[in-house]
């Protein structure tokens, strides 16, 4: 378990999960404060899923984040550069992301990551979001 101060993937920006965590990682990386093991997946994995959902380019998002602004302002910029999903699409996105790792194609990745983190016996950790929160020292049950 690591206490890094990273934002939970459950945290929402204007109703959208994960987006705020991605921005936080971008900001921390720009300051040189993002741990090396997090840098490998910048722009990949869930970051890529989020930018694909919004139809924006990750490198352009990084440049926009470096210009400053609130999470909400950057999300509005993302909507203007890519697309603005409907409330229903955001609901589907949120539910899809919250359940990643639970009986899907990344279940084996979740199982491996839990084992590597010494959490193989933690049966209550059924999703990647729950794993991320547990791994980073947050009570994922209160994050939902």
Describe the structure.
Helix content is 55%, strand content 3%. It is globular, with a radius of gyration of 15 Å. With 144 residues, the protein is mainly alpha-helical. It has one domain. Strand 1 (12-13) and strand 2 (16-17) form a beta hairpin.
Structural class: mainly alpha
> On the 0-100 scale, what is the average pLDDT?
92
- Beta percentage is under 5%
The string of secondary-structure elements, in order, is: EEHHHHHHHHH
Count of runs of 4 or more consecutive helical residues = 9
Largest sheet: 2 strands, antiparallel
Q: Termini, distance in Å?
A: 19 Å
Which ranges are low-confidence, i.e. pLDDT below 50, for 5 or more consecutive residues? none
Structure summary, number of beta strands:
2
Looking across the biggest beta sheet, what order are the strands in? 1-2
Summarize the structure.
The protein is mainly alpha-helical and 144 residues long. It has helices at residues 19-30, 36-39, 46-54, 58-66, 71-81, 87-98, 107-116, 128-135, 140-143, and strands spanning 12-13, 16-17.
Helix and strand topology:
Blueprint: E1 12-13, E2 16-17, H1 19-30, H2 36-39, H3 46-54, H4 58-66, H5 71-81, H6 87-98, H7 107-116, H8 128-135, H9 140-143
Antiparallel strand pairs: 1-2
């Amino acid at each position: 378990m690591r206490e890094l101060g990273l934002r939970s993937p459950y945290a929402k920006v204007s109703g959208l999960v994960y987006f705020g965590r991605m921005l936080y990682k971008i900001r921390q990386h720009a300051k040189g404060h993002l741990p090396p093991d997090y840098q490998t997946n910048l722009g990949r994995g869930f970051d890529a899923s989020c930018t694909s959902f919004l139809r924006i380019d990750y490198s352009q998002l990084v440049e926009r984040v470096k210009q400053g602004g609130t999470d909400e302002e950057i999300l509005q910029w993302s909507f203007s550069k890519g697309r603005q999903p409907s409330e229903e699409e955001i609901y589907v996105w949120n539910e899809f992301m919250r359940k990643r790792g639970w009986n899907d194609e990344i279940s084996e990745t979740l199982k491996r990551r839990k084992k590597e983190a010494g959490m193989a016996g933690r049966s209550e950790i059924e999703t990647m979001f729950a794993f991320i929160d547990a791994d980073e020292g947050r009570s994922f049950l209160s994050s939902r």
